[in-house]
Design goal:
Distance between the termini of chain B: 5 Å
Low-confidence stretches of chain A: 94-100
Number of helices of chain B: 6
CATH architecture of the largest domain in chain A: Orthogonal Bundle
Structural class of chain B: alpha/beta
Number of domains of chain B: 1
Number of helices of chain A: 16
Oligomer: heterodimer
Distance between the termini of chain A: 38 Å
Radius of gyration of chain A: 18 Å
Helix content of chain B: 10-25%
Largest sheet of chain A: none
CATH topology of the largest domain in chain A: Hypothetical protein af1432
Mean pLDDT of chain B: 94
Number of domains of chain A: 2
Number of strands of chain A: 0
CATH class of the largest domain in chain A: Mainly Alpha
Mean pLDDT of chain A: 83
Shape of chain B: globular
CATH architecture of chain B: 4-Layer Sandwich
Strand order of the largest sheet of chain B: 6-5-4-3-2-1-14
Order of helices and strands of chain A: HHHHHHHHHHHHHHHH
CATH superfamily of the largest domain in chain A: Hypothetical protein af1432
Amino acid sequence: MTPEERLAIIQRYIAKMPPLPATVTKVLAICNDPNATPADLNKIISLDPVLMGKVLRLINSAYYGLVQEITSLVRAIIMLGINTVKNLVLSTAVLGTLGNRRDFQALNMDDFWRHSLSVGVASKLIARKRGAPRNRLEEYFIAGLLHDLGKIPLNNRFSKDYEEVIHRSRSEGLPLFAAEKAFFGIDHADVGRLITDNWQLGADISDTLFFHHALEGVESSNSEIIFSVALANYYVNVKGLGFSGNCCPQRVADEILSGLDITLDYLDSVEQEVKSEIDRALVFLRVAG
Amino acid sequence: MQVRFWGVRGSVASPGRDTVVYGGNTACLELRLNGSDRVIIIDAGSGIRGLGAHLIRSRSGPIEAEIFLTHTHWDHIMGFPFFDPIYRPNTRLKVYGPITYEDDTLDRIVGDQLSYRYFPVRHSELSAAISYHQLREGEMRFSDGLRIKTKYLNHSLLCLGYRFEFDGKVLCTGYDTEPFQNVFSDDPDSPGYDPVVCEEGAQAVADANAALLAFFAGADLLIHDAQYTLSEYSGGKSGWGHSPMEHAIATAQAAGVKKVVLFHHDPDRRDDELQALEDRFRAVRQPPGAPEILVAREGMLLKV
C-alpha cells in the first residue's frame, strides 16, 4: 500500500471516528436522560478524547462560525445550552462503526483510554502547580486527553500492521513514533495533525498533538502547554498508567523540566491523585476495572 | 425603517375573545426600509398568512421578499404553508435561518411542512422560486446600505438575534431567549460539584450576557422575548428558553436602547392582563435615558 493510499484511508476514517467503547454506553444514557445534569454531560464528554475533540470541533468549525472560539466545554454548555450540546454529542456517537470490543486491535482501547485520561489529569496538575490561571486548566486537560488521538486511525484501520509496529518498537528499543515513521512513513503526530486540521481544534491542541514527540521544534508562544503534556506523557508511560503502545518512552530533557520548574518528585507525589481520578471515572462509567 | 407586527404570540396561536386586542397569531414582523421596495419578513409564524394576503392585495407586480427566521421552532415557521405568495409563479423568496446541528438542512426543516402527511401541496409543487440560506453569527452588507448582524441567543436550539442597521437607525430582535445562567451548581453538597467548573461557568455567563448587551447597544428599537412575568419565571419557567418581561426591560435599559417592545406573549396571557402589565410598566417613573416600553400588539406599526 502506498503512503497516499494509507493517508486516504486515514482521512476517511477521521470523518467518522466514533467515541471510545468505554464511554459509549454512558454517553447514550446521559443524553437520553432528561434529568441528567450539565455536570454529568460535562463529565462524560471530558472522559472521551474523541467525543471531546468532535464536540469542540463542531462548536468551533467555520460552519457554525462563532465569532469567538470556544476552547472550554463548560463555556460551550453555557453558550449553546444543554439541549444543543446533547444533540451534538448524540450526533457524533456513531455506534457500530467501531465494531465489537473483542475485534482484533493492536492497541487495547480501554488501556488507551486510561493512558489518555491519565495524561490529561497529569497535565492539568502540572498546570496547577505552575500557577496557570484557573480558566486555563481545562485547556491543559483537553490537550493531554487528546494528545494521542492520532493513534486511533492507525490502530483501527491498520491493526495488523500496527501490531507489527508495536512489536518492532519493543524489540528494537525504539520510541513508538519512530517505529511508526519507519513502517508507515508517518507517525501518530502526523495523523494527529490531520485530525486537528480537519476538526479545527485550535493552535494549543493542534501543536500539542504534533509536537509532543518533537519538542525541539516548538516555538515559544505555546511551549508551556506542549512541554507540560509531553512531561505528563513521559511520566504516565513510565508509571504504566494505562498503555498507549509506547514501551520506550523518551525522557524529557532536563532543560524542559527546569524550564517548567517541575520535578519528577512532584509527579510522584501526584501519582495517587491521577490514579484516583481514573478510579472515579470508572465508577462514573460503571465499567469493570 | 418601519416595522409592522403581524403576529406577536409565542408557542402556539391563541385565537379567541380573550386575545382579540393584542392578537393570537404567532411571531411575524414586516420590516420596510425608507425609499426601498424591499420586503423583509422576520419569522413565519401564523401571522405571515395575513402579511401574505396584504402583499398580494397591495402589489401589482411580482413579489420579492426575504424571510429571516430567528429559529425553526414550530411557532416561528408554522405559517409558511399559508403564505400565499409561495403559490404564485413570479414570486421570488429568499429564506434565511440559523444553521443546525441536525442532518436536515433549512429547506428540509421548513419545506417539509409541505409534505403529504401534513399538507395537500408538496414543496416541489410550489410555483415560486425559493432559495434557502443558512446563517451563522456574522454580518451581511447589501448594496442599498442595509447591514444585518446576527448573534446566537440563549434558547433550546440555535436561535439568532438580528440587528438591522439602515440609514443611521438600528432595529434589534431578541427572541426567543432567556438570560444566560450558570448551569453548574455552586452548592458544595451537590453531586458533581466542582469549584473550578462553577467559576468558569460564572465567567462564561457574564461574558455571554455582556456580549448580548453589546449586540443590542444603542438600538432605536429592541423587540425582545417577554413571555413570562418574573414570578412565573422564578416559579418554574427558568430554563424554558424565554425571558421575564422585567429582564427584557432591564436589558434594554443596560444596552441604552431607546424603545423596547415586549414580544412573544404567552398563549395564556389574556388581553386584560397584557393591558394591565403595559399600564404598570409605563406608569413606573423612569430615569432619564430609560427606554420607552411598549407591549407588542398585532397590527401595530412602529417607525424606527
